[in-house]
């Protein structure tokens, strides 16, 4: 067996995708991007209902202008890590703005959301510590655990009793345990039972990190996420977010109620050994953050679409991944072929969604993941629902 033989399954997958002809359902090529909600795919103008552009800010005039000005005044890239030559005033400025938004003393900005989880989880929990992680967590959380020297313990998805039992077994060591959950889960779009998880955390004296990648900008009066919405910020130790969804940029952040979060700068390898985010991305993110914090109108539009879609898809008989409406609405199928045929039918109708298949999905289900945006208009939602009705066959 040689070095490359192990890729037989991937070779077969690539060949089967090539055989399909037409537009690939994985890494779908976007030929031209016209707006936050419209692109040309396979030669036709298509409604984008499978991005993470929840507030639709990627084409916002102020965000674009800020990015252009940053390129003109600071250049295209920093060519260095935050710990070397890439620690610009704008990176520090964004950290200060995020910390102030939460009223917390510390914030670290990373180059991507993925690296944020990698860098924060692996550095916070070290030898002798414990990571209690929801089994359905995003790959970046699981990879952060792998990079850490701590002992990782998975608990059943959204099951606070299961978490409670696992912490119970740790006894006094629960005070060295970091619980890691997401606010809204990225594949099924379901929400964590954060109130119950916070209670378990308090009972055992453990620590809590919530990844609000899919809830920042969407929940809470100021858009700070599900913890703000549920009035739980005082129970949470660290919140992770990304710039690549509601904020329409690239990068990630961790805010902490403990000033010591700042010390991670000296030990977190995914923070130290990579170039910092480009000035353009930091600048557009700062402009987007201002709009997000003052974004009640954007949130109201997004929620109107999310509720209409959830009710409409349910009426059409689709099984949804979450009982409650939200920015992520996953249509769940037992058979991969069914999901693929619905995905294809939607694309043929000019609607782009995400096809997600095992092993990238929980419980081996196949999904057509629909995501809503404040930049959609009523007509877009009508078109997506009409396409779903025809795709039902
Ligand atoms: N956390 C969660 C829950 C995510 O869904 C994602 C991205 N899908 C990330 C982190 C990583 O963020 P980014 O794509 O900005 O690296």
From TrEMBL:
Keyword Iron found: no
Short name of one Pfam family: Aminotran_1_2
Residues covered by the Aminotransferase class I/classII large domain: 50-388
InterPro entries, alphabetized: Aminotrans_II_pyridoxalP_BS (IPR001917), Aminotransferase_I/II_large (IPR004839), AON_synthase_class-II (IPR050087), PyrdxlP-dep_Trfase (IPR015424), PyrdxlP-dep_Trfase_major (IPR015421), PyrdxlP-dep_Trfase_small (IPR015422)
Cofactor(s) listed in the protein's UniProt record: pyridoxal 5'-phosphate
Highest rank taxon of the organism: Bacteria
Nucleus listed as a keyword: no
Protein family: Belongs to the class-II pyridoxal-phosphate-dependent aminotransferase family.
Record-given protein name: Aminotransferase class I/II-fold pyridoxal phosphate-dependent enzyme
Species: Ramlibacter alkalitolerans
């Amino acid at each position: 067996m040689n070095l490359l033989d192990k890729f037989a399954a991937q070779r077969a997958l690539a060949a089967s995708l090539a055989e399909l002809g037409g537009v690939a359902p994985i890494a779908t090529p976007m030929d031209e991007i016209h707006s936050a909600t419209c692109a040309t795919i396979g030669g036709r103008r298509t409604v984008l209902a499978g991005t993470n552009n929840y507030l639709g800010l990627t084409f916002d005039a102020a965000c674009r202008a800020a990015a252009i000005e940053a390129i003109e005044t600071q250049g295209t890239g920093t060519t260095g890590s935050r710990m070397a030559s890439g620690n610009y005033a704008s990176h520090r400025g964004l950290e200060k703005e995020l910390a102030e938004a939460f009223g917390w003393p510390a914030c670290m900005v990373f180059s991507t959301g993925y690296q944020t989880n990698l860098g924060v989880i692996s550095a916070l929990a070290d030898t002798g510590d414990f990571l209690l992680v929801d089994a359905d967590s995003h790959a970046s959380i699981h990879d952060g655990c792998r990079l850490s020297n701590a002992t990782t313990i998975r608990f059943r998805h959204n099951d606070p009793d299961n978490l409670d039992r696992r912490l119970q077994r740790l006894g006094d060591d629960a005070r060295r345990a970091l619980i890691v959950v997401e606010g809204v889960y990225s594949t099924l779009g379901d929400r964590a039972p954060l109130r119950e998880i916070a209670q378990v955390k308090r009972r055992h004296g453990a620590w809590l990190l919530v990844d609000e990648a899919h809830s920042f900008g969407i929940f809470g009066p100021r858009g700070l996420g599900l913890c703000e919405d549920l009035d739980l910020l005082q129970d949470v130790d660290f919140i992770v977010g990304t710039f690549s969804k509601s904020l329409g940029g690239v990068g990630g952040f961790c805010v902490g109620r403990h000033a010591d979060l700042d010390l991670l700068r000296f030990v977190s390898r995914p923070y130290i050994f990579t170039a910092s985010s480009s000035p353009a991305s930091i600048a557009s993110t700062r402009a987007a953050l201002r709009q997000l914090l003052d974004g009640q109108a954007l949130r109201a539009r997004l929620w109107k679409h999310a509720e209409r879609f959830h009710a409409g898809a349910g009426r059409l008989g689709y099984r949804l991944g979450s009982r409650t409406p939200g920015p992520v609405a996953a249509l769940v199928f037992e058979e991969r072929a069914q999901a693929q045929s619905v995905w294809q039918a939607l694309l043929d109708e000019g609607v782009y969604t995400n096809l997600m298949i095992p092993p990238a999905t929980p419980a081996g289900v196949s999904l057509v993941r629909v995501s809503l945006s404040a930049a959609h208009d009523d007509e877009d939602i009508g078109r997506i629902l009409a396409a779903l009705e025809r795709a039902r066959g």
